[in-house]
Amino acid sequence: MKLKFWGARGSVPAPGPETNRYGGNTSCVQLTLDDGTDIVLDAGTGIRNLGLTMQHDCTLQILLTHLHLDHIQGLMFFEPAFDPKTELNIWGPEAPEASLEDRIARYISSPLTPIEVRELPCELSFKDSPTTEWEIGSARVQAAAVTHRGPTLGYRITEGDLSVCYLPDHEPALGASLVDLPEEWISGFELAQGADVLIHDCQYSDEEYASHIGWGHSRLTDTLTFAHRAGVKRLVLFHHDPLHSDDFLDAFMGAAVEGWTALGGAPDRVELAVERRCIELSAATA
Ligand SMILES: [Zn+2]
Ligand SMILES: [Zn+2]
Predict the structure, then answer these.
(1) Pick from 13, 82, 114, 225: CA 20 to 30 A from residue 188's CA?
(2) By C-alpha distance, which of 153, 156, 102 is closest to 126?
(3) DSSP code for 133
């Protein structure tokens, strides 16, 4: 299994000289299975660059956690979607008010975009992510509702003995302390438990979080506590705030290592997501 980060930013793209190193594109992670299947986690603006590297005459799977703009904005600029040879399956959370396709069509429609969803040339299908485990290529996929604003899923993808958990927008500590909350009460816990890699929301420093409680995102201490309690082997901090410059994130990384090692973690098992960086996963490295 191989991971590649195409967008690690949250909320809104943040291009510019201050964010060059960590990247300014919003949420998009490519997960390539050992059988060659590509699973794309979210379709933020990072998916545009991913699309430029992809073959079109194949079946692609996009798993959307939710439909906030920073997770779907790149769909309109995903080159394979404009090729009739591409079969594109888009999975996402169910919502009572409208189908996944109709909710995405609120973005891909006039006057926001020059075309309608039905006009995309690829062979396109929309599917509600099942509540029971299902298969994509050689992987088993699990989805579960997690604490964020609006219907939001987290995912766990398992291939062989290796598993990756993706929780980009998540506030498990909302109204509670993660230190002593029973496991079964912690949002996303089952998805993350024992994962080889956990990609998790860490939008705020502890100081910033005080004025952002209930916004749907995590502070550093909560992300570290969540990952520690879930017993993950490697933690990747994700969904960087658009206001966080490269210099800020360098310092944030220092605080993350300090907090992680204080919990008993190894310093090389926590990192910040960096756009275009890859993580190769094999039984040996895990
Ligand atoms: Zn987001
Ligand atoms: Zn969100």
Answers:
(1) 13
(2) 102
(3) -
Closest ligand to the CA of 238: 1
Question: Closest by alpha carbon to 150, among 109, 92, 107, 190?
Answer: 92
Measure the CA–CA gap between 271 and 23, rounded to whole angstroms: 15
Strand order in the sheet with 153-159: 134-136, 139-145, 153-159, 162-167, 197-201, 235-238, 270-272
Cα(85) to centroid(ligand 1), Å:
30
Supply the CATH classification number for the domain 2-280: 3.60.15.10
Question: In this structure, are residues 34 and 3 in contact, taking their beta carbons and an 8 Å threshold?
Answer: no
Tell me which residue has tokens 């439909």.
67
* Domain residue spans of the chain: 2-280
Burial (0-12, 13-18, 19+ Cβ within 10 Å), 90: buried
pTM of the model: 0.97
Rounded Cα–Cα distance for residues 219 and 276 (Å): 24
Summarised one tens digit per residue, pLDDT across range 41-94 is 999 999 999 999 998 888 999 999 999 999 999 999 999 999 999 999 999 999
CA of 283 to the centre of ligand 1 (A): 30
Condensed to tens digits (0 to 9), the pLDDT of residues 214-232 reads 999 999 999 999 999 999 9
List residues, by chain if needed, whose CB lies under 5 Å from ion ligand 2: 68, 169
Q: Ligand 2: distance of its center to the CA of 68 in Å? A: 5
Nearest to 249 by CA among 16, 3, 23: 23
